[in-house]
Design goal:
about 260 residues, mainly beta, six-stranded antiparallel beta sheet, 13 strands, globular, transmembrane, transmembrane helix, membrane
Length: about 260
């Protein structure tokens, strides 16, 4: 037995009721504009061929918080597709999923969160401007996000149960719509066969300060999908920087 041969991210290019995951796999460790997700606003000038270096900036709200309402996936620097069911709300369930190959042997529940980069340094809640190996999103702000990450998430079950049954959500609303301050310190455990907190509150993702952990250890040698959805906030006192911010999502687990 061993680690998974591949873990990728799929995105829905169809509708919530009739999802289309065909050809949407994004590999780990994006570089040079390829294999990356890009945030945007519906008012932005971005297209599905805009290169990473020319990606338009998102203006911050004059006060308070507003949700990022567009998400694009790029397999190459200039070849992208809009994630059709991401709109910055909790109205759609089938948005993103982690895709695990059938050759892994996990021996711990899986944890999921976001970090500034691959050093996986924990965020410093509320600190703006961010320090080394931190970023403006996972740090959040001391005011608008109450030092919680600006990235909110709900996840469905554990992807696969200990017995190897795939857990797949139905279309529809996901839990209680989170605000900019939503989040719980430490880990929030998923609900078997349901969204987080029995289709209730979401969690903020701030490294291993605030994160999500699966309720079960998925069965060995079983391919499965772990479904999740995000709402990402922009807030007035976020720090901006030339070139924008790049953040990484991370799945952590033990294997044998």
């Amino acid at each position: 037995m061993a680690d998974f041969g591949t873990i990728t991210t799929d995105y829905n290019k169809g509708t919530d009721a009739s999802p289309d995951w065909t050809g949407t796999t994004i590999a780990l460790s994006g570089t040079s504009g390829a294999n990356e997700f890009r945030m945007a606003l519906s008012t932005g000038s971005q297209t599905t061929t805009t290169p990473s270096a020319s990606w338009p900036y998102m203006p911050l709200p004059a006060s308070g918080a507003s949700a990022v309402d567009r998400l694009y996936a790029f397999s190459t620097n200039t070849s992208g597709i809009q994630v059709a069911t991401y709109d910055g709300t909790n109205a759609k369930a089938r948005v993103l999923r982690k895709n695990f190959s059938n050759n892994g042997n996990p021996i711990s529940a899986m944890q999921f969160s976001f970090f500034a980069d691959s050093t996986h340094a924990n965020p410093s809640g509320g600190t703006q401007p961010p320090g080394s190996h931190n970023d403006t999103f996972t740090n959040g702000t001391s005011g608008e996000t109450s030092s919680k990450s600006a990235i909110k998430c709900s996840m469905y079950g554990s992807g696969a149960t200990a017995g190897g049954t795939q857990e797949t959500p139905s279309a529809g609303t996901v839990g209680t719509s989170p605000g900019a301050t939503t989040g719980t310190s430490g880990a929030v455990t998923t609900t078997a066969g349901n969204w987080l907190n029995a289709n209730g509150a979401w969690q903020d993702l701030a490294g291993w300060n605030d994160y999500i952990i699966g309720v079960a250890i998925p069965a060995a040698s079983t391919a499965f999908f772990w479904y999740y959805t995000l709402i990402i906030y922009l807030v007035a006192s976020m720090t901006t920087q030339a070139g924008g911010w790049q953040i990484v999502d991370t799945v952590q687990y033990s294997y044998a």
